[in-house]
# Entry
Amino acid sequence: MEFKKIVKTILFWEILQGMWLTLSNLPPWNAVTRQYPKEPRYSDPGFRGLHALVRNPDTGREKCIACGLCAAVCPSRCITIHTGEDDKGEKIAEEYEVDVLRCVFCAFCVEACPVGAIVLSEHYEYSGYSRGDFYFNKERLLDNWDTFFPGEKGKWYMDNIWKHPNADDYKAHDDQAVFHGIQKEEKQ
Amino acid sequence: MGKIEEYTVKRDADRTDLKLNMGPQHPATHGVLRLELDLDGEIIRKCTPHIGYLHRGTEKLGEDRTYISALPLTDRLDYIASMNNNIGYCVAVEKLFGIEAPERAKYIRTMCAELGRISSHLLWLATHALDIGAMTVFLYAFRERAMIMEMFEKLTGARLTVSYPRIGGVRNDVTQEFIDRAHAFADEFPTHMEEYETLIDQNRIWLKRTKGIGIITADEAINWGLSGPMIRGSGIAYDIRKHEPYDAYKDVEFEVPIGTEGDVYDRYRVRMIELRQSALIIKQCVEKLPRGAILDPNAPKFTLPPKERVMTDMESLIHQFVLITKGPMTAQEGEVYVATELPKGEFGYYFVSDGSGKPYRMRLRAPSFVHASVLPLMCEGGLIADVIANIGTLDIVLGECDR
# Structure
């Protein structure tokens, strides 16, 4: 036993083992790195990225009713709302500003909104040259909705992703995921 | 000009010791820790840690936010293991309100906490090895960490600052894909562990840099108030998951590893065994995961009403407004302290409630703060090169230390 140990020490055995592991991971087909800017990365549905104000397809205006719950729940106090009245005397948000640099992307505003008027999109690549680029006003946020949720995508998101908590969360039901054993077939 | 140079040279020659500022922008200090080192040659005579560069006033901010909206603040404490922070916060608030999360939510939380622990320990292993000089482990550990990140992204919508648990449960239910992936990950994780161990476990450079360095005896560990892997490395089997189990920890089986010498290498071994145990806990949680509610149905005064009902039902709408603007108003007057086992050690939340929707006082007991104070004990009398190994073995995160 002692002799074995001495031989291993002389031969740098443990270092050779490490080197072999490194070498065996060297071939390019073992690479796990994503070459990011060339190989874009798409977030999963439900990723908490850039904000958008939902546009109501019936009126063409924002869904927001300017209740201020999003601003109340916001932990970083990054939402500013100024309320006003439209021609019909209904309460609307005259100004709706999100300071994206302050935002912590917790999506509490989405949970708080009683009409489902604000969402977070999957978009995460935004940069600018000045601080002013990141004060998103109402028009910009509505534009985000048109850009990131075109057509029916927005409706699907409202129904499936941005409804927490939903009534199913308070009771057991059959659709809930439980472990059924390892499925060997699925793993290639 | 010449006069000043002459003076400096003369003064330096007279001095026997040297004051060295290490940090706050030193890459091996894991954030913005500054160490003031009094050197005598290569030997450290005095070591003074300076903290506070990352102070954001989290405790004070918590007093200004309702129990519901203070949750994302805790993400930013120990940002390596934000899931564990969130869970600790929710467990503490639940105890204050006298409610309990449903069984399914507890299992999901435990599973996520262990995933967070693995993620945190992997980052510790990667950076600790990188500091000491083993670059390769960094790449391997980050490969597995990215898997956990992607699982978190699928589940919670964020990779790092998850904000996933809620008071009385969790935000959304796990999908079949998630639990299958978690099980597969826990299954194959030990093989990855073997890879890390092949690289450094018996490596002679690693042993030279870690064995007999930064020794803390069991008595010292208790006296300095250490917790987590730091105290277990010194040979004391103290684990809050075992001693005061919260969530589903009383239903899962795991071992608490302890060290014998209390040096850097022992703490490394303790954490490596903990990684394996965490994988086992994940496996058990996935297999035992019951059907049931994920938010407490008996606690409508603490959890937000379902979204469909808010949109249609006036009572739920009013409820939603009151809950968000004023916070959960049914907190009893009093105080509560709940300690949870974070990857770094014992993280305690202490709330003083005056019956309103906001905490009167929120105090955080951060393990990194306690562990940073033990640095002089470990460093003084040692060599300057071992300071890096000592900081690495503490596994401190300055976001949590400075709060």
